[in-house]
């Protein structure tokens, strides 16, 4: 299970929540790995369909890093900060 931290803060509230979820998963025999998006930009989707051909996003960066990590896992838990009663755009 990949625990995806969408917060720009490495050890903030989202990290804490994902850590708790990870503890419970590991107690139940589920292998986990953390993936922190950091402050890296994520390109918007432009429907270029290049990922179908190459398996990678044309914008590169953190999206491709995630695709490489996610390929070896069966599940994902996404954590996103809530700012002003809205979730972040992840």
Low-confidence stretches: none
The averaged pLDDT comes out at 86
What's the alpha carbon Rg, rounded to whole Å? 14 Å
What proportion strand? 15-25%
Task: Tell me the strand order in the biggest sheet.
Answer: 2-1-3
Overview of the structural elements:
With 90 residues, the chain is of the alpha/beta class. It has one domain. Helices cover 32% and strands 18% of the residues. It has 3 helices and 5 strands; from the N terminus they run E-H-E-H-H-E-E-E. It has helices at residues 13-27, 50-54, 62-70, and strands at residues 2-5, 33-36, 76-79, 82-83, 86-87. The strands form 2 sheets. A 3-stranded parallel beta sheet has the order 2-1-3, sandwiched between helices. The protein starts with a strand and ends with a strand. 10% of the residues are buried. The mean pLDDT is 86.
Summarize the structure.
With 90 residues, this protein is of the alpha/beta class. The chain has helices spanning 13-27, 50-54, 62-70, and strands spanning 2-5, 33-36, 76-79, 82-83, 86-87. Helix 1 links the parallel strand 1 and strand 2.
Features of this protein?
3 helices; three-stranded parallel sheet; 90 residues
Summarize the SSE layout with pairings.
Layout: E1 2-5, H1 13-27, E2 33-36, H2 50-54, H3 62-70, E3 76-79, E4 82-83, E5 86-87
Parallel strand pairs: 1-2, 1-3
Antiparallel strand pairs: 4-5
């Amino acid at each position: 299970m990949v625990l995806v931290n969408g917060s720009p803060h490495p050890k903030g509230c989202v990290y804490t929540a994902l850590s708790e979820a990870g503890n419970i998963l590991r107690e139940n025999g589920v292998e986990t790995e953390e993936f922190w998006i950091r402050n890296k930009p994520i390109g918007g989707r432009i429907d270029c369909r290049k990922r179908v051909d190459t398996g990678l996003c044309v914008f590169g960066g953190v999206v491709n890093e995630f695709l490489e990590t996610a390929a070896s896992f069966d599940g994902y838990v996404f954590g996103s900060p809530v700012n002003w009663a809205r979730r972040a755009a992840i």
